[in-house]
Every structure is written in structure tokens, then in C-alpha cells.
Amino acid sequence: MRDDSAHSAGHDASRAMYRWRAYSYDLQLAPYEFIRRHAVERLQLLPGQCVLDLGCGTGMSLDLLRQAVGAQGRVIAVDQCPEMIALARSRVSQAGWTNVELICAAVEDTPLPDAADAAFFHLVHDILQNPQAVAHVLHHLKPGARIAATGLKWTAPWLVPWNALVGMFAAQSITNFDRLAAPWQPLLDQGAALELESVLMGTLYVASGTAPPARPRQGHRTH
Q1: 166 SS3 class
Q2: Rounded Cα gap, residues 113 and 15, in angstroms
Q3: C-alpha torsion 58→63→145→79, nearest 10
Q4: 3 state SS of 75
Q5: Of 79, 110, 154, 191, which residue is most buried, by most CB within 10 angstroms?
Q6: How many whole angstroms separate alpha carbon 21 and alpha carbon 46?
Q7: Class of domain 4-210
Q8: What is the pLDDT of residues 83-138, one digit of tens each?
Q9: Closest Cα partner for 125 from 172, 72, 190?
Q10: Which residues, listed in sequence order, are joined to residue 195 by a DSSP beta bridge?
Q11: What is the DSSP letter of 183?
């Protein structure tokens, strides 16, 4: 059964971590822009579709996602950190985008649209390690909808300097080190079908594929 106090503490720790990173976040992530672009391509979005951006941060993915779904499509972006969402909101306002909706909430508590076409999990390890959040997202995707997830991962154990770098960067961005060897596993556990790619000596991954052919029940819990 889920420990609600630990769950709440995890959210509080994550919000605190990203609160102080918010105003330097774009600069910190700039070197990894190629991963973002590659993962968005793996979503295979079409004009008019609805895509979910989970853990959207300052909104760095919004322009790419919006271009892919076009003026008739929708981008629903979620982040639980108010400072991050404020910067994303400023980005949307300055660009004049009218088909982007921003929601400040934990993913599992977010009112998502029914039958979305795709879900994007970019550098959001803590969200992927939250079974309730993953189940909530999958429940609101069309059966077989496209999924792309990216993030840090442990590489081969003998590549000690590279794993040291993973640990250093992970300590600045995640609160839950579970499954850092295979961060995409919770999606597989709930029925997604994924193909895996790794870059930078295996320290970064892109997992892309499709949601389960049938939607998980709402309110899934692990026991």
C-alpha cells in the first residue's frame, strides 16, 4: 500500500529542488537539446493531435510539440513546481500560443483530457518511478498512443567515471534513485511497448513506443 506521508515528502523535496533551479534550468539543459528533439521525433505526432508534456519544467519542449501538432492540435503541459510553471507561462504568453494549456499539479492529481494521442516524459525520473502517476497518464491515452521518455541512467559498472557523473547530475535533479539502471521499467510494467536507445556511453536513454492496447483502470495502486 502507498505511504502517503512518504509520497507527499517526495513531492515536497522535488518542488524544493526545482524551485532553486528554475531560473538557470534552460541554461543547464541546453547541452541536451539533441535528446529532446530526438525524443519528440519519436512521438511521431500528427497535426490536430493532443500531446501531454509531463513534468514540462520551464516549457522548453512546448515549441517543438506545438509545431508537431499544429494550430489545430493541443499541448497539455504539467509541472508541480510553481516557479517552473510561471516561467513556462511567460514563454507561452510571449509567443502568443493559444493551444497550450499549463497545469501546476502533481501528475497523478492532474485532470487530464480523455484519449490523448501521445505522452512525453523528458528528464522526469521521479514521475516515471511513481506508479500512480504512470497509471493516471496511461489511463488518459488512447490505446496504442505514442510514448517517449528520456533521462539519466546508470551505464556499465566498469565505466566508473561515467557513473560518477550520472550520480552527480542525478543528485541535482531526482529524489528517487530507484531503477536508475532501467528508468523506463514502470512503463513496461503497465503494458507499454518500448524500444530503447542510449547515448553518451550509455548514460542517457530514449525509450519510445506505444501505450498499452487497453487503458489501465483509473486510480491504480501498487501493493
Answers
A1: helix
A2: 24
A3: 10
A4: strand
A5: 79
A6: 33
A7: alpha beta
A8: 999 999 999 999 999 999 999 999 999 999 999 999 999 999 999 999 999 999 99
A9: 172
A10: 208
A11: T
